[in-house]
TrEMBL record:
Residues 74-108, 235-321 are annotated as: Disordered. GO terms for molecular function: RNA binding. It holds the Pfam family R3H. This is RNA-binding protein KhpB. It comes from Candidatus Egerieicola faecale.
Amino acid sequence: MAKEITITANSEQEALEQAYRELGVSSQQCDAQVLQPAKKSLFGKIKQQAIVKVTVVRDADTVRTAPPVIKQDEPKAVKSAVPGKEIKEETVESPAEEAQKEQNNNNSAKLQAAQEYLQAILEKMGVEGVTMTVEEGEESATITLNGEHLGILIGHHGETLDALQHLTTLVCNRLDGKYFRVTLDCGQYRDKRQKALKDLAKRTSIKVARTGRSQMLEPMNPYERRIVHSVVTEMEGVTSKSKGEDPNRRVVILPTNPRPKSSRDSYDRRRSGGSRGYDRRGSRRDHPLERVSTEGTMEKILKAERTEEEKKAKKYSKIEF
């Protein structure tokens, strides 16, 4: 009867060596079979010991020179003790996946803080019936307020809305994690304002190219100035630049081919006897920059949304958080 032994050890090799010692034979006299392979965790710890079965099949005199063949059973699926459920192998996340998961959790917490802050502000302002629609990105979110009587939340040229957006961004970024940008909209005001600015930039550019005289627009924030500059770059005969300091920084639209001064100006002035438009030396003074406002355009677009509650906006111009 053939001798056999089953050994359990931390590795297959360790189990084989122990079996050979206990049987008092060499590896060439035996057939070995791995019943259960050893498994290690990500950090090298033993999760499962190896089980090896060794059988003596040859005498010492009839030893073959060929090395023993180790047969390894195919791993079998382990059935769960609970019917209908299978045991899933534990998946180890990479450091990058763990970092991304943590960042997503931070962004969710910041977005929740932003919504809670806005809800508290709306309650203090006495604005009711306002719903929030959230569009979340990777490191940003757009919160749109919908409802009636939204004029008090927008303010003059969106100043109140911009202030609420700035404060909301500050509040949510008090939490840990990367910078999270919040864009606050109110009844599609941003789209309407953008359309009004584009129309203004086109009309003003056409006028500047036709008259050859520069024109200065009303003070705007950096986002609105970029909209105007992008429109002017597509127009012929004009260019643009920003002038002044925030919050009174403005866009100036200039002609690329200014209107030349006429050589008949001095002659016409002497004949008429007038000096209007000329300095003491007889030189014609440059025309001052004309200032253009979006008031008319925005009046037409937002006329239907204006209510008496806009007069109360001054009461909420200073918001502490």
